[in-house]
Amino acid sequence: MDQQSLKQSRFARLGDRLARSSRVFMLGVVIACGIEVLVDWNATLTEINVLRDRMRERGYNYVGILAKSTETPLASGQADAIATLTGGLFDDEDVAFVRFTRPDGSIVWERTNDKFEARFVAERGQTLRDYYASQLTRDVDGIIRDPDGLRQRMGASRYRDFAQRWNDALDTLVARFSTPKPPRAGGLALYQDRLRTPDKQRDDALTYALSAVRKDGQTIGAIVVAFSMERTNAAIRVKYLKGLGMVVFFVGLILVQNVMSRRDKLRLLDLEARYAAAKEKLRAAFSQPLLEGPLRVAGAIDQATGKVDGMAWETERHDDGVSLTVIDPDGDGIDAAAVALHALRTLRATTGRPLEEARAVGTAILDIPLTRPLGILIVRVDRDGTIDGVASPFADLRVLEGAAARPVERTPISDEQGLIGPLARLSGHLPEGALMVGAFGHAAGRRGRPLDVDEVASFVSRAHGVEGTGLDVAVRDAVTWARGRATALAESDVAIVAIARD
Fold it and tell me: What is the DSSP letter of 230?
């Protein structure tokens, strides 16, 4: 075996080992499920962040509009004017609280949504103003005195849920490859969605947008617009349940598909192993070429890549000549190999002329369960060049004398049981220095270029005519050449035999 064949054999064994490995299978399933979970949860978290982004955009829009429309009343402390300008804000059922403050933090005007306040007090035992007093004071002071520092502290806050952490990680990743979005409202507006409870747990009941208000380049106060997250949180819970359901469904689907496909793959691998064993048994039963004496015989079979086609060849030297047999069971599969092997054993135990041997083989294979008809060629060439044989339709022989080629004469005879007919009697003469070549394959009913016996015979003749090339080498080269040209025979065995008379 050459180095290339050895390397391919090692890779084939490695591939088969990996294909059968349960650890490799489990690793593949884990990777596939992990990718599915990642994709589904990314979609779910994206939808959740879209819901929150909508609330954030509303907050930015509200404080942006109010910062421009309330400059004058805020600067002069006109609470009634501010109340009038903000009256329509509470038509939004998510708005929970609005506050206007001076630069020193004193309140100019504020209002709370009564329905939200009632529910909040019932749940937490304090008014919204008191519950969030320290956090509101801190953020208002930050937006007035150090908005950039407040933005950094909000971004680094640990009071975030998984969706927010995921979104922040994606924003950080994207920022490495593209320019970050500029701050809203000239850097004067921020959105606080990372509040905490008194026992230092994340608080998702409320979020608020806040903005500094400037007039003539001076900060004259700040605005806070707070939102109830009740409806948004309810929608987020639905998204989580939907995402969980999708993960469970698709991961389950992946598991079922992989388990079923693995079973099918293992069955296929086992079938391929049985096919390979059957092919090996057939190859071991093939004859060796007869390369000594005035009558020389050589043959070669290139087996189909996948299934077992069952073609085999046999040769024998007699006192008065040589005989050559090619058998080809109808159809394919392991049972075809069994029929072929039984036919070879019967043939080796039988003596007589070609027709007698063919009848014995046809009768013998009828005893095999699941037997199938057998295509057969038995041809005998005596020392004087006389050709005598019997053949099924698949067999086609040519006699080449110099550049001229002629078919071996065929005479129809009665069909025999177990053999594919119509059978024909072969007769003729093989002159000294001539070749008889046969080429066999199944081209009927398949697309592509079939096997052309005249081209094959011409190739064998040319190859055999090269000095130093033996008959067996010429035949093996012809099989390789014919396989490449006969595209219709990709799933069939290809056999070439030759008899030379010196």
Answer: H
pLDDT band of 415, cuts 50, 70, 90? confident
Side-chain-side CA neighbours of residue 125 (13 Å): 2
Q: Would you state the structure tokens that stand for residue 336, as one six-digit string?
A: 């075809």
Contacts (Cβ under 8 Å, ≥6 apart) of 407: 396, 397, 398, 399
For 13-46, the pLDDT digits (tens) are 666 665 566 666 677 777 887 888 888 888 888 8
344 and 424 inside one domain: yes
Amino acid at 106: S
Instruction: Say whether both 185 and 306 belong to one domain.
Output: no
pTM: 0.55
Give the span between the Cα atoms of 111 and 401, in whole angstroms.
114
Laid out side by side, the sheet with 404-407 consists of: 295-302, 494-501, 435-440, 397-401, 404-407
17 C-beta neighbours (distance < 10 Å), count: 10
> Is the distance from CB of 353 to CB of 473 less than 8 angstroms?
no
Other C-beta atoms closer than 10 Å to the C-beta of 163 total: 20
Could you tell me which of 353, 361, 352, 351 has the C-alpha nearest to residue 326? 361
Q: What tokens does 364 get?
A: 């013998």
Q: Are 136 and 101 in contact (CB under 8 A)?
A: no
Q: Are residues 225 and 337 in the same domain?
A: no
Shared domain for 52 and 169, answered yes or no, is yes
pLDDT of 132 strictly over 90: yes
Residue 61 Cα distances to 46, 54, 144, 185, 502, angstroms: 22, 11, 19, 9, 103
User: To the nearest whole percent, how much of the chain has pLDDT over 90?
Assistant: 37
Q: Which one, of 137, 140, 142, 88, lies nearest residue 111 by Cα?
A: 88
Residue at a domain's end among 177, 208, 238 = 238
CA distance 48 to 41: 10
Q: How far apart are CA 88 and CA 472, in angstroms?
A: 100
3-state secondary structure 82-110: HHHHCHHHHHCCCEEEEEEECCCCCEEEE
The reply to whether 74 and 212 lie within a common domain is: yes
